[in-house]
Every structure is written in C-alpha cells, then in structure tokens.
Design a protein that fits this description.
The chain is an alpha/beta fold and 348 residues long. The protein contains twelve helices and eleven strands. The protein has helices at 34-44, 56-70, 88-95, 98-115, 125-143, 159-166, 180-188, 200-213, 242-247, 252-266, 282-298, 306-311, and strands at 47-48, 51-52, 170-174, 192-197, 219-222, 234-240, 267-277, 318-323, 329-332, 335-338, 341-347.
Length: 348
C-alpha cells in the first residue's frame, strides 16, 4: 500500500519489491525474502475459530508489525530522532495516522511518475484476486435472488450474464489507496465504481493509475470515512485493510465506533459490506458487528430518511452473510490459522 522511494537501478517490477523486515527498518533498503515474510506472518496470525490465541495487547502490537510487512515502511529515521529501532507502539501510531499515509503516497506518486511503478498491493495480488472474484459471485448470487451459501463453490456464469447482474451494483471502495482493487472489480464486470481516501496523494495516484489502465469510468474522491461527506448510498461497499489501519490509531477503539456509524450510512438497505482484514478472524469481525448492533439498539440514531425508519424497526444494522473459505490455513498448537479474513455483511 505504502512504499519507499525506489532508486532507478532497482527492479522496475513492483511485484518483486518486498518490504523490509522489522529489524531492518532503520536502513530502509534491506529486503526480506518470501520465506521470511511467511514466517513473520505465521507468528502473528495464529487464530482459532473463536478468536485470536494472543492477548489483545500482544495482538495489537503484532498487527502493526504485520501491516508493516504488507506496506513498505518508510525508514525509521524519517519519524524518530535518536532511537536505533522504532518500537511497536510507535509503529502502531504511525499506521493509524494520516500524516504517515500522506508521506507514503507522496513517495509512491514519485515512483509512478519517475519509474511507472504501480505500488504495493495491499495484502498481495492473490488475496485481491480472491476478494474480487468471490465478491462478483456473491453479488450475482444475490441478484438472482439466492441467499449465498458456500459462494466459493458456485459455478461462474457466462460473461454476458455477469454484465446483466453486475451493472446494477454501485460500488464504493473506502480507503482505496492506489485504486487497484477497483480496477480488478472493473475487470470482473462492475461498472459503477467509486473510490475514496483521506489522502490526496492516494487519490492522485489512483487517478493516474486508472488513466494509464484505461479505467476512465472509475471515480475517485478525497473523503475521510470517519467524517464522510458522501450523501449517496451504495449497493456494495468494500474495505480491504482500512478498518485494520483505523484500529491502529492511538484512539483506535473510538475511531472504530465512528467507522461503523459512518459505514452503516453508506451501505444501502439490502446492500453488502465486504471487509478484508489481516488483524481479525471471521468470528471477531462478526462479533464486532454484533456489538455495533447492540450499541445501535441501545442508543438509536435519529433517522435521516423514511428508509432509515424502516430499517431501524427491530432489526440490527448488519447481519452476517458469508465469508471466504479458500484462503490457505495452517495448524499450530492445535489451532487453525489464516493470514487473512474476508467477511460479507448484509445491510438490513
């Protein structure tokens, strides 16, 4: 997602740019191998069906380290004066602050203009491909009037049928970053696409990449999901890593409550919210939605429209719909782990 400015002599293939290992943050130039990244990911993502095997404080710190492996960190010297290594708390704060992402996307925009580099794919290309293809099947299933069940096993329909079903889905990608997720959704057949990010640099990069790729139909706007100015409601809202980053803000718990209040106003009744996270299991995300529902019932918000009045009648804002079942898993200490979770919720 975020990256360091690359020297001209480095490989021009962005897929070959790996983030520095945690102990190499100071130099900003040493590169971790795929095996090292895999081991690092395994060390923080061991989760059971009932939640993480780690305590909250440790998981919070490990999440920052994990996200730092996904997003190429700027050198630690850019942010600290006399520390040899940035501590976990500092990284947690950085990843949750807009100033960090503004600086990171400024670098990525320079990389694009000077070398044509696309930038980092948040969670990797394989996860993005899985999310987009799975979401496409999910939306087609709903359009056909079927309640999704084991979407991963559904058989794809001909392209002409896809176009018919997907053209009615308005899509919003919150925290869009470089906008590559929307490009992949466009390739899947979605046509009404909007991406927002609170970083102007991210939006500039996303527009540049979309123009280069010929995706003139994708709209990009500067907007903060926690203080959104959007008035439109969308049939499909995508979040790939944004909730994770918000949770790493020093006021993460409060910011997450603001997130759910805001997102609930952006998803149209009957619409779908798809969240992809590297810091939560499916069950943890479902529990967080249930907590929001209980809070919403206890302190109902003033309805803005007749639709709001209808949806607030004895119904929780969101209900669990489905989740991706095809991500690779591993066993450790008797628990089944997965590095990423993608969960869909239906807006009542």
């Amino acid at each position: 997602m975020a990256g360091m400015r690359l020297a001209p002599e480095e490989s021009p293939d962005p897929t070959q740019q790996h983030p520095p290992a945690q102990q190499h943050l100071q130099t900003g130039r040493e590169v971790a191998s795929d095996d090292e990244r895999s081991v690092a990911a395994d060390s923080w993502s061991i989760k059971s069906d009932y939640g993480s095997t780690l305590d909250d404080d440790q998981r919070h710190a490990d999440a920052a380290e994990a996200l730092s492996s996904v997003a190429n960190f700027r050198a630690a010297s850019d942010y600290s004066s006399d520390k040899d290594e940035a501590d976990a708390d500092a990284m947690t704060s950085m990843l949750g602050l807009q100033t960090y992402w503004d600086a990171a996307y400024a670098d990525e925009l320079v990389n694009f203009r000077e070398h044509g580099h696309t930038g980092e794919i948040w969670f990797g290309a394989d996860v993005m491909d899985t999310v987009t293809s799975w979401t496409k099947t999910l939306c087609i299933d709903i359009s056909q009037g079927h309640m999704p069940n084991h979407v991963d096993e559904a058989k794809p329909e001909p392209v002409e049928q896809d176009d018919k079903y997907l053209s009615c889905w308005s899509v919003l990608d919150i925290g869009t970053g470089n906008g590559l997720l929307l490009q992949e959704l466009a390739k899947q057949g979605f046509t009404d696409l909007t991406g927002t990010d609170y970083s102007e640099g991210a939006i500039d990069l996303a527009r540049s990449l979309a123009d280069r790729g010929g995706f003139s139909n994708i709209k990009f706007l500067v907007d903060d999901i926690l203080e959104t100015k959007l008035e439109k409601r969308f049939q499909l809202v995508m979040d790939k890593g944004t909730l994770d980053a918000i949770g790493l803000h020093p006021d993460g718990p409060i910011k997450r409550m603001m997130y759910w209040d805001s997102v609930s106003k952006l998803v149209a009744p009957g619409g779908v919210l798809v969240i992809t996270s590297c810091n939560h299991t499916k069950d943890e995300l479902v529990q967080e939605v249930e907590n929001f529902s209980q809070r919403n019932i206890a302190m109902p918000q003033e309805p803005n429209t007749v639709e709001d009045q209808e949806t607030q009648r004895d119904l929780p804002p969101f209900q669990y719909l489905n989740h991706v079942r095809t991500y690779p898993t591993f066993m450790f200490g008797g628990s089944v782990g997965s590095r990423v979770a993608t969960v869909a919720f239906r807006r009542n």
